[in-house]
Amino acid sequence: MEEICRQFRLALGAGEVDPLLLIPVFIHDFLCIHPFSDGNGRMSRLLTTLLLYQNGYMVGKYISLEAKIANSKELYYDSLAAAQHGWREGQEDAVPFIKYLLSTVIAAYRDFEERMELVSDKLPALETVRKAVQARLGKFTKAEILGLCPSLSASSVEASLRKLAANGELVKQGAGRSTVYSRVN
What we know:
Layout: H1 2-14, H2 19-33, H3 40-54, H4 65-70, H5 73-84, H6 95-120, H7 125-134, H8 142-148, H9 154-166, E1 170-173, E2 180-183
Antiparallel strand pairs: 1-2
């Protein structure tokens, strides 16, 4: 671990390779070394967020990278397995994992951009929720809409979802915590 940390610091300090390429390589090596008996995956996601912060990429402050990775767990494990093959012999190809992690960061920035569009429009609650709903595919929960509308209270989102369902724009299924919505059109 000391050696990969030293190499990472040297590479960052040299400034010849962009941190967005160095971070996934460091995380890949960390996961190959597997320094702890448990919790290596979670630690790698915390390290990813920390290293992104330290290098000026603040998206993890607003969008959970851990949740994005959890939502694409199969891709995560597939890319990691492909990248780890031959690591002990020095024959690995980290590119699949680099591509995966960079696509996750890009997706987080896209989500952040969508949220900021909703917030910056200063629309009434109903219109803000309507816009958030239009950005969703398939079924979604009130919590997901709340995440897209951080400027609104839970009661405003709930009232807006009720109105949209009453207007026939949404279909409500279930009750209480198991309630899900879907768009009509």
